[in-house]
Known about the structure:
By secondary structure, the chain is α/β, with parallel strands linked by helices. Helices cover about 25% and strands about 25% of the residues. This is Agmatine deiminase family protein.
Amino acid sequence: MNPRFPAEWEAQDGVLLAWPHEGTDWSSMLDDVHPAFVEIIRRITRFERVVLTAPSAASARECLAAAGIDLGRVVVCEVPSNDTWARDFGPLTVIFNDRPVLLDFGFNGWGLKFAANHDNLISKRLKELGALVPNLKTVGLVLEGGSVESDGLGTILTTAECLLSPNRNPQLDKGEIELALASLLGAGRVLWLHHGFLAGDDTDSHIDTLARICPDNTIVYTACDDPRDEHYQELKLMEEELKAFRAPDGSPYRLLPLPWPKARFDDQAHRLPATYANFLVINGAVLVPTYRDPEKDEPAMTCIGQAFPGREIIGIDCLPLLEQHGSLHCVTMQLPQGVLP
Length: 341
């Protein structure tokens, strides 16, 4: 029997996050980023539980309690971390013989760009602490959660720029990567995007910044409508690739273009990777990153609501997260049903 990689919109027990602390790149802006994390946790705990790693569990609990967070819905685990990008160092859950199995892929700081010695051990340490229930299988493949999208039925959507990066799995070619995805994630087919990028993105074009698989053969994707923008041509080529893809039943995907947010820059005038595609699906809701852009935030939420009818669509100000080149989906990893005690 092959494993099955569930879609994000399937039933969940909770969401994993890592608390920003002085040992991370957030150290100079903790007063800005802590409220963003508190708000994400507040919204998630309305619907499900949160597992939070922190170098000081007491300090994190104190901050959450001061913000009125229900600590009965949050498990805080004292675990060291290099950073806060739980999407990429967190475990990927597959269903095997009707039971969840946690896959602990290698995490090497997005192709050896950043230190990851603590982050690469977080899944193992959470398992040792009893915070995660299923079997944990260490996998000899470098793979980040933000680099793969699943429909839960054997389709994986990804980008060639990331999965074929020479600093991740240089010993494997494209065909061998596909075989690994088939063996580990039950991929019956892999849809490869060869175009699309975001300036300021450190991940080598993670799919969760560009295009997301949604229910009923729908793909929501980042679109640029400004011909003067540096992204315009590449995102148009990506759009053409998406139009050529076929759903498992042979029909074209229903494609929903997301608005193009206003350009944001850091204090060195470097562009930041703002994208509405970096949303998180939880039980009964979708959390959507917003960027204090009234002309685009609301239309983005409306678009995502069309892809997830019947779910509450909740915007969360994620402008502070852009300062470290990520957003809402990047700092979270869903934990499917059966993963938490």
